[in-house]
User: What shape does this take?
Amino acid sequence: MEELQKKARELLQSGAVQLVLGYGKGSAKKARPLFLRKPEQADRLILDDSCLQNLAVYLLKPEVKAMGKPAIVAKLPTMRAILQLAAENQLTEKDLLVLGVSHDGKLLDLPDFKAIEDYLATAPLELTAEQKAELEKIEKMSMEERWRFWQEQFAKCVKCYACRAACPLCYCAKCIAECNQPQWLPVPSHQRGNLEWHIVRAMHLAGRCINCGDCTRACPAGIPLHLLNRKLAAELLRNFNSRAGMSAKGEYALGIFKPEDKENFIK
Amino acid sequence: MSIDKKLLKKESLDQLFSKLKSSGRRILAPVKRGEQLFFEEVNTPGEMAGDYIQTTFSAKGAVFPRCEELFSYRFEGRELKLEDRKAEPKATVIFGLRPCDAASFAVLNSVFSWDYQDELFKSRLEKTAVIGLSCKKADEYCFCTSVGGGPGETRGSDILLTELSSGDFLAEIVTDKGRELAALAPELFGPAPAEDKAKNLAVLPRQFEAGELAAKLSKLFDRNELWVEQSLRCLGCGACAFVCPTCVCFDIQDEAGRQQGTRLRCWDSCGFSLFTLHTSGHNPRSVQSQRWRQRLMHKFSYMPERQQLIGCVGCGRCSRLCPADMNLVEHLKEIMEAK
Assistant: This one.
């Protein structure tokens, strides 16, 4: 933590960045995002297990962009979000400095995207036993049971769109949920409206979700949305050996075609 | 009329519920689903969540559902038939509502009966009775005492229950609706207990003076840097508005087909960029800081000025559930100190 504070202080002092985006102490025992602009604020930075939010979500926000170049405290999911955003041409290497934090809490020296890619290539990204069990529980359900499970979950949705707002990869300036000519999705949070919204969101994130879990953490109704994304990510890994957020030039599995594709229907 | 004070034994709750049910009323009470608490229909007190400070969502949906049909239309040949949705509210008792939430119905009503009298809302409110439950505990997000309420405030409840040290309840019968409910089972309501109510209530010091806040806010509209700074971490979702017991804004949606369709009213949030987007493409609240300002101004400045009440009951849900830890009281206190 002291090392991070020192680094942040130096970066702000030297003018290398105008903003340090990190975590500070929040309400109750929560951490909250901090936007530091003065070196003397650096001692407010914290780094512990309460620092869960994926801060990459702020990188594209107009008020944040207006502050100048940021350094961003990035645990694994944030690093992956940054690479995925770069792969989708939403930011470039020179737009930011990444203060990477390894899975065991150590500050990493990551001068460029290549260094992030190299670190992630060796980082533990497999699902934990607990995460696997959570997914298997859903997979083992019969189709009817699974349908009922998701119907019950989606019934709690009030369409506050916290899942979308908290997601670093949900950056569309105009979300499909907001298009009304034509109206692709029903707006009301009734059964069909909720079902269509969550399926569309899961599909739009297939191959792009970097498994931070912020959708679920943000949901006031406690819907385990990450399970949808995680299932799709597992399928993409199995079928295409593709994992989102591993490269700044990553190809989007659902958006590319290779002549040697093993499927016939596409040829 | 004065408040009648009675004793309601904890063992009597089962009978009270069955009397309420057999009178044709549905009972909504906090039910635990996973980590969350929702107001849902129950038959017995046993189905209710036990120890809770506050439910995840308020009971707002009982009078103002998250989406509801206003009217439907259909073409019969070349003729258009319009059909208003009839107000057919179910007689409802909301049980276990906290005093802050009980106070929220007056805020909702001030909007729905401001000039246009909203029949769907008003008929539901008319058919709804509240058996509130005082707060023995509060958490760091609670601030009802700063907005005119209190952990044992009776206003808004038809009957307010306060749990005593024995587990029995002091029942304060506040309104005619409350008397009507108590009359369904008069044998359950005994002579008033001697125990002091106040010692069974959470202690919650006031954190700001709402009148001073309203006066202060009216001078801060143009303080852009304040609003930008406060809302930097705001993600622009609608979680705060949708868990809020007093947020009343709605969106009109048509689910329209060529031959038939319906018009619906759905919860909306001033935190959404779409909320004020004009057809021209211009958005008078184009960034989150302007939308955050609106949320505070509306509750703590505009509503006191126009409706003579504070648009907030201090339940703390917005802060408790914010995915970016926007803490309302912290922000309000900062505003009080702004130069």
In short: DSSP finds ten helices and twelve strands in chain B.
